[in-house]
């Protein structure tokens, strides 16, 4: 298996109108979760990906599994919870450049994942284990499961890729979040932080100083997301800024970091240099912002290549 990832995916309700959520009268049902977004992004680029999770024994769980399985992702280790529901969240497009997200995930099926639930065989064949800082914040039992996953990956020679993906609302307090995010970053081979997450962990610094702080934790490779400016890579003495891609209008920024991770991982799996992989990640992140939805804008390989070389046409007939 090229990449295995673990985490919660939820039913996503998106209003069919812009403005405050209180004024919305109809919604579209989609699905969103950082880890499944990465798995879908990799699958669309032709890689083998597996998503591990727990969902409710309900209609949302049925629809979610059908959707993710239909994208070519291996969901054979996903289990159903007879008592706890599938989580739900809402997006609110208040106005241009003002998107808000509301989560209803307390006591969800995924929050009940634990170390006993996780089998070694679900990870042992992975080349990369992709993890985010969301999963260990869901519950103490998820944290135990998360740490077991790291042990299994290390024991089987898989590289660990960690995206801090800070969600303060799921942690008890900032100190707890900071402690565990640093801990899991230090146990990873590749870390994919954003500027805001680096600032949360280390205070105000320059991007170059941030990557040094991550290296001080023992991390070999740091690829820092700089938004529309691109990304900054740092590994084995190489420090280089990789340019971003310009889009005319950002429709939905949620999921851009997940697309970036999928692009980077795809590049590494294809044997590209770190610079090439980061550039591909930048392109993927830019592309998904132009489409409403977490996974809907993830491109296939031909679309990605056309976007990167500038040959994509406005209308294809």
What's the arrangement of secondary structure elements?
Blueprint: E1 3-6, E2 10-15, E3 27-32, H1 34-44, E4 49-52, E5 54-56, H2 59-70, E6 79-81, E7 88-95, E8 98-104, E9 128-132, H3 140-155, E10 159-163, H4 174-186, E11 190-191, H5 195-202, H6 207-216, E12 221-225, E13 231-235, E14 238-242, H7 256-269, H8 274-288, H9 301-309
Give a quick account of the main beta sheet: strands, pairing sense, barrel closure: 8 strands, mixed
Could you spell the SSE succession in H and E letters? EEEHEEHEEEEHEHEHHEEEHHH
Determine the mean pLDDT: 92
Distance N terminus to C terminus?
A: 37 Å
* Large-scale geometry: globular
Secondary-structure content class: alpha/beta
User: How many strand units?
Assistant: 14
* Number of continuous helical runs: 9
Percent in helix:
25-40%
Strand order of the largest sheet: 4-1-9-10-11-12-13-14
Round the Cα radius of gyration to an integer and report it. Answer: 18 Å
């Amino acid at each position: 298996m090229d990449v295995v990832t673990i985490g919660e995916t939820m039913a996503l309700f998106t209003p069919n109108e812009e403005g405050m959520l209180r004024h919305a009268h109809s919604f579209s049902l989609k699905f969103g979760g950082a880890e499944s977004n990465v798995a879908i992004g990799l699958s669309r680029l032709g890689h083998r990906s597996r998503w591990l999770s727990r969902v409710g024994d309900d209609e949302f769980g049925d629809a979610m599994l059908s959707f993710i399985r239909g994208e070519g992702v291996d969901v054979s280790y996903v289990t159903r919870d007879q008592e706890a529901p599938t989580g739900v969240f809402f997006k609110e497009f208040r106005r241009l450049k003002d998107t808000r997200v509301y989560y209803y995930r307390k006591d969800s099926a995924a929050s009940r994942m634990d170390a006993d639930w996780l089998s070694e065989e679900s990870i042992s064949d992975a080349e990369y284990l992709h993890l985010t800082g969301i999963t260990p914040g869901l519950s103490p039992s998820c944290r135990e499961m998360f740490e077991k996953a790291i042990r299994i990956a290390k024991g089987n020679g898989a590289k660990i890729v960690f995206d801090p993906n800070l969600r303060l609302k799921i942690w008890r307090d900032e100190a707890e979040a900071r402690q565990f995010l640093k801990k899991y970053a230090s146990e990873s081979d590749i870390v994919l932080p954003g500027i805001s997450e680096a600032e949360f962990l280390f205070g105000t610094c320059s991007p170059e100083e941030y990557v040094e702080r991550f290296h001080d934790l023992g991390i070999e490779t740091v690829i820092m997301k700089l938004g529309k400016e691109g990304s900054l890579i740092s590994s084995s003495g190489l420090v280089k800024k990789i340019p971003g891609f310009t889009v005319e209008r950002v429709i939905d920024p949620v999921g851009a970091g997940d697309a970036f991770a999928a692009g980077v991982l795809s590049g590494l799996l294809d044997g590209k240099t770190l610079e090439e992989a980061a550039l591909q990640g930048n392109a993927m992140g830019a592309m998904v912002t132009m489409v409403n939805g977490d996974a809907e804008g993830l491109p296939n390989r031909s679309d990605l290549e056309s976007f990167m070389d500038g040959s994509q046409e406005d209308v294809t007939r």
